[in-house]
Amino acid sequence: MRLSLFEHHLEAKAQLLWPAAVRALFIRAGSLTLTQADGTVHTLTSLACLFTESALTLEGAAEVWAFELSRQTLAAMTAEQRLHCVMSNEVGLEDQRAVVFRLDRVEFSPAFETPKHGHKGPGIRRLYEGRLVAEIGDEVRRLDQGDAWFETGHDPVIGRNIAPHSGFVRAMVLPVALHGKSTFIPWDETEATKPRGTLRTEYFDRIVHC
User: Fold this and answer.
1) Global pTM?
2) Rounded mean pLDDT of the chain?
3) What is the CATH number of domain 98-209?
4) What is the predicted pLDDT for the residue at 158?
5) How confident is the model at residue 94, as a pLDDT?
């Protein structure tokens, strides 16, 4: 099973037609009108999100980040998809008919540092505002606005905010048993006593068949 992140920039009066897929649309900036195959219309503005499995018509002036879940192989990705792809990763769970697809955003207060931790499943993150220093396994990275990264869940992670305000959007793919449950795992007893300190906003937590 593959989780992919695509980026699209729509100019005013532009229109895109997308086929049906298991996807979440996050509006990084601007305003967008989406019409589903059944005629349902949604208007989204900055930092809003929509989960859908429908074919879509998109109109407006916006920067759109689309997280898509599929069983498509990397080799089967079209040239158009590759043009807009920011990141695409295998997430396992191939033997599962149903999985949890979850999207949320995480915001950091000034100078805050998370406890060392892992998660109970993999996912893609992308920074929509600010700047972080992230320790992921044996790697240290500075993450600037627009940077994306993948976490397996098994590697230890520490995130430190080095901007007045930082926030990232996160898409995760999880076993059905984790529906409605936290994925956060403190790395040890000492880390478990430290404050989490971030503000989390959940957009959706859906069981999907993919």
Assistant:
1) 0.95
2) 95
3) 2.60.120.10
4) 96
5) 87
Between the alpha carbon of residue 56 and those of residues 70, 81, 102, 168, 190, the distances in Å are 17, 16, 20, 25, 47
Token representation of residue 30: 């601007």
| 3-state DSSP assignment of residue 12 | coil
Residue 189 main-chain phi, psi, to 5 deg: -65, -35
What residue segments make up the domains of the chain, in order of their start? 2-88, 98-209
Whether the CB-CB separation of 159 and 129 falls below 8 Å is answered with no
- Are 2-88 and 98-209 in the same CATH fold? yes
Q: How far is CA 55 from CA 40, 76, 209, in A?
A: 11, 19, 16
Question: Cα(22)–Cα(155) distance, rounded to whole angstroms?
Answer: 27
Q: DSSP letter at 95? A: T
**What is the CATH T-level fold of the domain 2-88, as seen in this structure?**
Jelly Rolls (2.60.120)
Tokens 């589903």 belong to residue: 36
The structure tokens listed for 10 are 């729509």
Over residues 57-74, mean pLDDT = 95
Q: pLDDT at residue 83 above 90?
A: yes
Q: How far are the Cα atoms of 10, 127, 166 from residue 163, in angstroms, in the given order?
A: 28, 12, 6
DSSP 137-159: TTEEEEEETT-EEEE-SSS-EEE
Determine phi and psi for 84, rounding to 5 degrees.
Answer: -105, 0
DSSP H helices in the chain: 79-84, 189-192
The tokens of 161 are what? Answer: 């905010």
Tokens representing 109 are: 């207060």
pLDDT score at 150: 97
